[in-house]
Amino acid sequence: MYKGNLYNICRSGSSNKNLNVHIAELLFALLSLSIADSLMKSAKFFFNVTMKAFENLKRETGKNEKCNLHNQLLIYYCTTCQKAICSDCAMFGSDHKEHKFEHLEKVYNQHVKSIKDESGFIKEQLMNYMKAMESIRRSIDSIQKAKEAKEEELVRVMETLRNNLEKQLKEKLVLLLSEKSAIGNEITYLETLTEAMEKEINAASKSQLVKRSKELTKIIGEAKKRPTISFDGFNCSPEFT
């Protein structure tokens, strides 16, 4: 019945300016709900792509990387010089005499693990924001249902009660949509940062990744210092007085 009344009011045009504003706000809230659902689906797809990229990491990076001096495969890492070297550099080269070496594969795996561990915070934060988005969607849905029930009653009551209802609805939606926008911005930021980390890992050679590992870890550390958004609007009651 309410939807039929809303259709008739929109079709015929209402002389009540407050009611017209109310209709516009209701349509805006429904549109926002649709956008929230789209963001959730995009975030889930992003996680699937991220996990697949991590699983294929070793097979996609650092293949047949050779020493510029001896044209041999880089299989060692000089911890003294902090540089990837070949077996000839380690055994016969004077530049690395009495230096300490480790297998490049071992050092590479350690740095990949370090980056993955640091990236875990970003993924966890992204999941928290996805849950927050779903909570907002339920809050908006609950408020809309309560509003529809109340609207049936307010059609028959005094204009002052209708104005009071519209004021409450606007305050609730302003709060929820404001938090939704802030969370959406954080999701975009974290997705972009995670994608950048993935590109760095997939595109860089083993030696390049080891060299940039400290810089990448610093970038992730700066992301961890970003203040967490407060979700006070989740306790927004759907009840109207």
What report would you give on this structure?
There is one protein chain. The protein is mainly alpha-helical. It has one domain. The chain is built from seven helices and three strands; from the N terminus they run H-H-H-E-E-H-E-H-H-H. It has helices at residues 2-12, 17-55, 57-60, 87-91, 104-154, 159-203, 206-224; strands spanning 74-78, 83-86, 101-103. It has a three-stranded antiparallel beta sheet. Strand 1 and strand 2 form a beta hairpin. Helix 5 runs parallel beside helix 7 (206-224). The chain is rod-shaped and about 95 Å long. The two termini are 23 Å apart.
Which descriptors would you attach to this protein?
mainly alpha; three-stranded antiparallel β-sheet; 3 strands; 5% strand; rod-shaped; disordered N terminus; 241 residues
Radius of gyration: 28 Å
**Can you count the beta strands?**
3
| Oligomer state of the chains in this structure | single chain
The overall average pLDDT, rounded, is 77
Q: Which strand-content bin applies to the residues?
A: under 5%
Order of helices and strands: HHHEEHEHHH
Number of discrete domains: 1
Strand order of the largest sheet: 2-1-3
